[in-house]
Amino acid sequence: MPGFNTRNLTVHVGGHAFKLRVLSDRQQFADPDGHGERLGISSAQWSLFGQLWPSGQLLAQAMDRADVAGKRVLEVGCGIGLASLVLQRRGVDVVASDMHPLAEPFLAYNAALNALPAVHFRHLRWAQPLPTLGQFDLLIASDVLYERGHAELLAGVVERHVRGTGEVMITDPGRGHSGGFTRLLEAQGFALTHTRCAMDHAGQAEHGSLLHYRRGLVPATDMP
């Protein structure tokens, strides 16, 4: 690809091997027409969409096990789209979304690598309403609360696009902003089930969180 380098890797999720094209490293950058900059994506942030993050793998594993029969699912901040690919393999009605200008072609390429139908994609900026996107039974995301303002923006997406009986599932490595997001979703009637999960990061065992929000439930914590 002109302007940046990529590599292919294979990830196993639920007994299935997924082939993925990702950026070679976090130093990759190409924004010749300034499109990313106009979207608010800095040079330091530009490559983040194209990495396979531990939280992304954790979300993909959760989607392999989740009860999603008959549900319409929205992934926000999909990046390379592993979780959406897992759902696509399961035959789920899934829409992937991201603001990065290369997320859609990377997702399409990765679907083709795995002999899957193309995943429906929508370009979504959290601060800008997109009424044509519609509503969903489940919203999913991984490691999207890495800046202070993200909690309020993502809560707005939930309010606009998650049905009254819908759910939200976020995998989070513990960056410190999930508490604010939880309070905002509690104001929308959601209760949190918090599960600590093992993650692998560069060969080192770490712990992350699976945050599962549902309306009308008593908050619970699962500590394996």
Topology record:
Blueprint: E1 6-13, E2 16-23, H1 35-38, H2 54-65, E3 72-75, H3 82-89, E4 93-98, H4 103-113, E5 120-123, E6 136-142, H5 150-161, E7 162-172, H6 178-186, E8 190-201, E9 204-215, E10 220-222
Parallel strand pairs: 3-4, 3-6, 4-5, 6-7, 8-10
Antiparallel strand pairs: 1-2, 7-9, 8-9
List keywords for this structure.
single chain, 224 residues, alpha/beta, Rossmann fold, eight-stranded mixed beta sheet, two-stranded antiparallel sheet, 6 helices
Reported for the largest beta sheet, the result is:
8 strands, mixed
Question: Mean of residue pLDDT?
Answer: 92
CATH topology: Rossmann fold
Low-confidence stretches: none
Beta strand %: 25-35%
Q: How many helices does DSSP assign?
A: 6
CATH superfamily grouping: Vaccinia Virus protein VP39
Question: How many structurally independent domains?
Answer: 1
Main sheet: which strands, in order across?
5-4-3-6-7-9-8-10
Can you tell me the overall shape?
Answer: globular
